[in-house]
Every structure is written in C-alpha cells, then in structure tokens.
Specification:
four-stranded antiparallel β-sheet; about 325 residues; disordered N terminus; Tachylectin-2, Chain A; about 45% strand; single chain; mainly beta
Length: about 325
C-alpha cells in the first residue's frame, strides 16, 4: 500500500514511536513522533472523523480546503495514511454549501449504511447536511437542503461541527454541534433525531459553553467529540483562549447533556514548537487495543495539518 508521507516522516520502516513534551501534553498523552501524518503538499487538511470498526482497517474523513471538499484516507495501523480521495464534493448550486467540511461519519446499525453529517458554508452562514453511502467511499446527499440550520439566538448564523452517535436504547441519533460565530462558533448544543434528517433541538441549549475563569478556554468552546462510556459520556473539545489560540481538553457528564465536569489537567494537548505551534484543534479520539489515538489539527500560521497524540492504556484517569 502506498502512503503519503507528510514533512517529518521517514521511510526507515521502524516501529512507530512517540515523543513526550510536558509543555505540550498532559494527562498521559504524548504527541506521535512522526507528526504531522497528513498535510504537506496536500495543502490545508483538517477536521477529522475516524472509523475503526475492524482490526487493521482505519478510515479517516477530513476536510480538504484546497478542494473545498471532504476526503477519505485509509490506514492499516492508524498511523500511516494514504493520500486522500474526495468522497463528498462541494456543491455551488445549492447556495449554502460552497465549501463542505467538518464531517462526522458513523455506520448506522439499522441499515448498515454510512451516514455523514457535514458542515456546509457560504460567505455568511453555516448549516449541517447529511449524505449517505453504501460502502463509506462515495456519499450522496439525502436532500438539497440542510438538515440543521441556525434558528436560535445563541446560534447566530452558524451551526457546524456535528458529532453524532446512535443510541440503541432510544433508537435515536444524538448530535452535539457547535453554534455561533461564522469564523469560529461559540458554544455546543445538543439535538436528537429518529432518522438523521429531522432534528429536535434541546430546549436548554447550549449544553456546554466556555468557562471564563479558565484562561485556556475563556473565549469559547467548540467542535466536540462525545463518546458513550459505561457510566457516563466523555467529551473531547476545543477551548479558545482567544480567537486565534486553541487547545484541547476533556469533560464528562452522566447523561451527555447536563452537569459537565472538566478534567483537572486540561488542556491535554497544547501547541508545540513546529508544525502545530500556533494552535491545536478538532480532536477525534478512538480506542485502539490497549491505547488511545487522538487525531487533531495542528496549525502553524495559516497552515493546518493532521497529527496524532497517543495515550498508552485505555484508562484515562477520568
């Protein structure tokens, strides 16, 4: 299999290693020693959703800014990734999705198909659409219209960054999404749906917003991933110190909606000294055997690429 090697990679074939820098991580996380894993000549590539439902089979869906589209890369180990291939192109004719980005993809247990909720943007607003695929490689939109739009005061003109899970106890999709400013949204809302198309927004939205007493997230919080655990829900999210400086943290809640408790060692991933020196964004964590792989965007000046942080052992201490 041919792999795209971003700057900093080598082809020596050695077993992957991690590097640790206490200034850049906390809570047992270590940045992967061969970061970034996707970027370089591809241009800005960011905002990850990863499926890993079979051993040796990883699918990464990401935003490919120069193509204004969502692309798919694959991997056999979760560390080395193929060059991306477009799986959902932009659609100028719709009016609301001149760019498509910030996807989440899950496999629907009800029909076995792959459902992608994604952000569509134009110059003034953002909304969330849905596309479906039989094989997870090429997606078709279910409608020319978005499935979620900004229609609450706190959402202003933008809803984006969907994260969706299937709840087999209620037979409904559960979505956490970001709303607010078009450039970077302000807070996180919650909605549910029986079919993935028609959504009921939670009356108490937003369910997660910035804590002004914590300097690292004093400006806004956004772009979360929520994982159902045995006794609670674990959230990875971005905290903004200001509009340009972002870091990654964790929180948890018994019901995934209320009484979120932040991790004491936040932020867990911080900007470094090279490719991710300006900000780190958009976490997406998966369990891989007895470790966690956390994919994230790293920005240096205006260039965003994708890297990995690794946590050995499944127990995050939280």
């Amino acid at each position: 299999m041919a792999f795209f090697l971003a700057p900093g990679w080598n082809s020596c074939g050695e077993h992957p290693t991690s590097k640790s820098d206490n200034a850049e991580t906390a809570g047992g996380w270590k940045k992967y020693g061969k970061n970034p894993v996707l970027g370089g000549d591809l241009g800005t590539i960011f905002d990850i959703s990863v499926l890993h439902d079979r051993p040796g089979d990883f699918d990464m869906y990401c935003s490919w800014r120069p193509r204004r589209s969502i692309a798919l890369s694959t991997s056999s180990d979760g560390l080395e990734w193929t060059k991306p291939v477009i799986c959902l192109p932009y659609n100028d004719s719709s009016g609301w999705e001149r760019d498509v980005n910030r996807p989440v993809v899950i496999r629907n247990p009800a029909d076995g198909k792959y459902y992608m909720w994604y952000t569509g943007e134009n110059d003034s607003a953002s909304a969330i659409g849905l596309a479906i695929s039989a094989d997870g490689r090429q997606f078709r939109r279910v409608s020319a219209q978005p499935v979620l739009v900004a229609d609450r005061p706190w959402e202003k003109k933008a809803v984006m960054c969907p994260h969706v899970i299937w709840d087999d106890q209620t037979n409904r999709f559960r979505m956490w999404y970001s709303g607010g400013e078009q450039y970077e949204p302000d807070a996180i809302g919650y909605a549910t749906s029986a079919d993935g198309v028609h959504w009921d927004k939670y009356e108490g939205n937003p369910v997660f917003y910035h804590d002004s007493t914590r300097e690292w997230e004093q400006d806004k919080v956004t772009a979360c991933q929520v994982i159902r655990r045995k006794d609670d829900y674990l959230m990875f999210y971005i905290g903004f110190k200001n509009i340009d400086y972002a870091q990654i943290g964790m929180a948890r809640s018994k019901d995934g909606i209320t009484k979120w408790e932040r991790y004491a060692q936040n932020p867990i991933i911080k900007p470094g000294s090279a490719w991710d020196s300006s900000a780190v964004y958009k976490p997406y964590a998966i369990e891989d055997g007895d470790r966690w792989l956390l994919y994230y965007n790293g920005r240096r000046n205006s260039m965003e690429q994708i890297g990995i942080a690794i946590h050995e052992g499944w127990d995050l201490g939280f």
